[in-house]
Design brief:
The chain is of the alpha+beta class. The chain has 22 helices and 22 strands. It comes from Chelativorans salis.
């Protein structure tokens, strides 16, 4: 052990080490004496006794050296301790060090001087709890005088924290600041500073501020508009302002310090103030009973209609303060308002009686209107039933109507080969055959229109090679164009679209036929151009053009944009067929025309973006045409989700779906539908949504959110009366089918059938009748 190591030991540890070495030295002396005696008795001539004695002597010498080193270490430790004690005694603050067991290790002279009552305990080994217990018993701390146990608990709580600082007042009037901090070994260092001078300076400064504030307060009270009177504990007037005498109508000279409150009240009553007897008794009782002085307010009336609101408040020293405010303007305003309210109530009652009479008249008008509407509704239903009956009759009688015409054509063919007919007869037969041919075409067109209106025509959607279709139509119409001296030009296309081949051919054929029919000179251009995910098939001509006012009428039955004196053939059904077929397929027909320069008719058809092999691979991988992964299982079961906030429209749509043997649910908002779906655990087939719904989510966003909720590309149909381009482009960008209101049942049914064809199951029966279509 080094000579400097013991200096780090505490005084108690050094004393323990000295005691242990003394005990060991005593044992060694006992052993030495025993060995010497043993040598004297045995007279060992071999020299072993001497060797043993020599060993004992060496041990004794080693022990003596260790004792000397220990003595030097103790001396150095005493010197270091004495130096440390001198150092902490020279500190201007009180210093005390506790070990990890909360026992005193060191305490300086300043600490003992601050707490002379505790001097006998301020020595090494004394526990912290003993020190504070003595402090509480002797009343050293002012706070401990009234409740010593509470102070002891608070002091122990401070001592247990790693770091704290607080101030305390001693019983002799001194102020101290105590700062404590934990040591690394788990002990605690406490520093106590005398801050009496600082506290006295602070108190002096605060009293000076209070004097200044008192002057400010007196000036403020004298300047305010309210009256103020202050009475001391003996109920004598101590302070007041001039406004108080003015508001109470008491001469200022009659108010002086020491005037009793009861005498002052008698002065107030004597100078004309009036107040109810009950309120007067309440003031007397309030002044008499100090324990029942709750805030009191009375209104004092003076001559001339002046009203003074007087407030009585008690003060901590049993005195009282009275404040007065002139509330005459508020009282007058309240009375004026009360009169206005009474007049307003009378006017409201009169107007209510008038409105009641008008309401009775209006109810009578509503009843008559409802009766008229009911009659109109019955008339409308009868007209719809008659129209539906007519349409069904035409659709059902097509075979019977065309059969006699077919027989007549056979008889005409027989006459043409007969030798009984001369040259003039053949000319008549040719004209008759043309008439029959026109009749057949007209009847076929009318039947097609009736069939489409009745929903009996079910489109068969498939991939169509546009280039091949246009080339075929050009070959068919080349001769007719050449006969009129027109040039029919074709721009080839490699696009593939998704449509019904027969209906699409009929649309382009009618548009091309019209272009040749109504063009006298120039050329016809047939081609197609891509527009995003769709293809616009266009027919340009150099005809006379169509005036603006006729551009909608030409799509109606038996309407043409030519003068009545024109010799042009046809009854104006071609474009009617085009419009119905396009609506049935969900295609858009456009017209651009300039009078005198020509016209351009076009039909916009969706492109088929994937081929059969790619589609099969995507279905196998579970991915859609947009490259995202979707559920590839056929959607053969589930409900149609209808989002419509108009109850009548929603009911009509669900009734129509019921006639088509399809299950559906409806809700006025996205959140309402989501709650219904989650509550009933429904599976969707498709979503039919209006654009404008209840809540902040419109139809397009609702379809997108439902797709995210169910995790697959749910088919969406937007049915809206908003025909703006922005809405159509927004729906197209989200792969949502757009239908304009009023929606055609046949068109909607065709699209649902198209979805069923894609899904691999018949969601909509193809051949059943369409009630309400």
């Amino acid at each position: 052990m080094s000579a400097t190591a013991p200096a780090k030991l505490s005084h108690r540890e050094l004393e323990s080490e000295v005691e242990r070495l003394r005990h060991e030295n005593d044992k060694l002396r006992t052993i030495r004496d025993a060995l010497i005696r043993q040598v004297d008795r045995n007279h060992d001539l071999t020299g072993n006794s001497y060797k043993l004695f020599q060993s004992v002597a060496q041990i004794e010498s080693s022990v003596e050296k260790r004792i000397q080193r220990l003595a030097r270490a103790m001396s150095e430790a005493k010197i270091a301790r004495r130096q440390l004690q001198h150092a902490i005694d020279s500190i201007g603050e009180g210093f005390i060090l506790y070990d990890k067991d909360d026992r005193i290790v060191l305490c300086n002279r300043k600490y003992r001087k601050i707490f002379p009552e505790l001097e006998d305990l301020l020595k090494p080994g004394t526990h912290f709890n003993d020190v504070i217990q003595r402090a509480a018993e002797t009343g050293v701390i002012a706070e401990a005088v009234t409740d010593p146990q509470s102070w002891i608990a608070a002091r122990i709580a401070y001592h247990r924290t790693r770091r704290c600082q607080f101030q305390q007042l001693l019983s002799d009037g001194r102020w101290i600041q105590i700062s404590e901090r934990a040591t690394d070994e788990g002990g605690k260092v406490t520093v106590v500073s005398d801050i009496t001078q600082f506290r006295r300076l602070e108190d002096t400064r605060r009293l000076s501020n209070l004097a200044q504030q008192s002057d400010i307060l007196a000036t403020t009270v004298a300047s305010i508009a309210q009256g103020v009177m202050v009475f001391d504990a003996d109920l004598n007037l101590a302070a007041w302002n001039s406004q108080a005498s003015m508001l109470l109508n008491v001469p200022y000279m009659d108010m002086h310090a020491g005037t009793n409150v009861r005498k002052l009240l008698r002065l107030v009553w004597r100078h004309g103030a009036t107040v109810g007897r009950e309120r007067r008794d309440a003031v007397r009782e309030w002044i008499r009973d100090v324990k029942k002085r709750h805030p009191l307010r009375i209104e004092v009336s003076h001559s001339g209609g002046r009203v003074i609101a007087t407030n009585f408040r008690s003060m901590p020293d049993d005195g009282l303060v009275v404040t007065m405010t002139d509330v005459s303007p508020q009282i007058n305003a309240a009375k004026l308002l009360e009169r206005s309210n009474e007049e307003l109530e009378k006017r409201v009652q009169e107007r209510t009686r008038e409105l009641t009479r008008l309401n009775e008249i209006l109810q009578d008008e509503v009843l008559r209107h409802e009766k008229t509407m009911a009659d109109l509704e019955r008339t409308r239903k009868a007209a719809e039933a008659a129209n539906l009956s007519k349409t069904r009759f035409l659709a059902a009688a097509s075979h019977d109507l065309l059969q006699p015409l077919n027989a007549a054509r056979l008889y005409l063919s027989a006459l043409e080969t007969s030798h009984f007919v001369g040259q003039e007869g053949h000319e008549l037969l040719d004209k008759l055959g043309n008439a029959f041919q026109s009749t057949e075409a007209l009847l076929g067109t009318i039947l097609d229109i009736s069939k489409m209106d009745a929903g009996g025509y079910q489109p068969k959607l498939a991939a169509i090679d546009v280039g091949a279709l246009l080339e075929t139509l050009k070959a068919e119409f080349d001769a007719l164009a050449h006969q009129k001296g027109l040039q029919l030009r074709l721009v080839g296309s490699s696009a593939v679209v998704w449509s019904d081949a027969q209906l699409l051919r009929r649309i382009i054929q009618n548009l091309l036929s019209n272009a040749i029919k109504y063009t006298e000179t120039g050329s016809i251009l047939l081609g197609a151009r891509r527009k995003g995910r769709a293809l616009s098939i266009e027919i340009h001509d150099t005809g006379s053009g169509i005036p603006q006012q006729d551009r909608e009428a030409i799509f109606e039955e038996f309407r043409r944009a030519v003068s009545p004196t024109s010799q042009m053939s046809g009854l104006g059904l071609g474009l009617a067929i085009v419009r119905r077929a396009a609506d049935l397929l969900g295609h858009e027909v456009k017209l651009h025309s300039e009078v005198g320069r020509g016209s351009c008719f076009s039909v916009v058809v969706p492109l088929k973006t994937t081929g059969p092999q790619l589609r099969a691979q995507q279905e196998q991988d579970g991915a859609g045409t947009d490259g995202r992964r979707h559920d590839s299982r056929p959607r053969t079961e589930g409900h149609l989700f209808v989002l419509e906030n108009d109850e009548s429209v929603a009911h009509a749509m669900t009734t129509l779906f019921s006639h088509w043997q399809m299950e559906s649910v409806t809700a006025p908002s996205y959140l309402g539908l989501l709650d219904l779906v989650q509550h009933k655990a429904l599976t969707p087939l498709a979503v039919v949504a209006d654009l404008h719904l209840d809540g902040d989510i419109d139809g397009i966003d609702a379809i997108i959110l439902l797709r995210e909720h169910f995790g697959h590309d749910l088919p969406g149909i937007l049915v809206t009366a908003d025909h703006s381009r922005a809405i159509k482009e927004r729906a197209r960008a989200k792969r949502i089918e757009y239908f304009s209101k009023p929606v055609k049942p046949a068109q909607l049914r065709a699209y649902l059938f198209h979805l069923s064809t894609e899904a691999g199951a018949d969601l909509v029966p193809a051949a059943d009748p369409m009630p309400g279509a």
